Amino acid sequence: xxxxxxxxxxxxxxxxxxxxxxxxxxxxxxxxxxxxxxxxxxxxxxxxxxxxxxxxxxxxxxxxxxxxxxxxxxxxxxxxxxxxxxxxxxxxxxxxxxxxxxxxxxxxxxxxxxxxxxxxxxxxxxxxxxxxxxxxxxxxxxxxxxxxxxxxxxxxxxxxxxxxxxxxxxxxxxxxxxxxxxxxxxxxxxxxxxxxxxxxxxxx
Length: 204
What we know:
Layout: E1 5-9, E2 20-21, H1 23-26, E3 31-33, E4 43-45, E5 53-56, E6 64-66, E7 72-75, H2 76-85, E8 90-99, E9 109-114, E10 117-120, E11 163-167, E12 169-176, H3 177-185, E13 192-194
Parallel strand pairs: 5-8, 10-11
Antiparallel strand pairs: 1-12, 1-13, 2-5, 3-4, 6-7, 7-9, 8-9, 11-12
């Protein structure tokens, strides 16, 4: 029986296809948070300040292109397909791309940005705000690890979007079965689907 929800990800054996940030173009992209109390809390804070600039390792990229930082990029024809199908819960940002070892023109890519909401991770999943490690000095708010993936999504908090995030797993794209069926039927490359209960456990 098919799951109602899935995690959209890149194939595990496709690391050689991952796009690199063009770090020269992305310099100064993030505001850095410095903690006056604990130097270990230094981190990038807030959303990116620039649209993505990436280098592609392969001259024939797949329909879905992923970066080493887990950003999902889609080719222009994929965006058109999604719009024609009326899929909800996402927006896009422009991407500047070039090939790392080729002078060929790169295809038009868009960064896939989630706007759909799947609510907070259920506490039964193991994910909770770790209040003992929170820091009022720099607003550091860490969460505990995922230990029971099957308990992750609370359907009552889901806004009904076709694509959505579950807080605090902001790098995870969750979607519904009709999206999975559409992508598989069109044989779009560079994407796999993982049932939430099959996500890797990251803690006990």
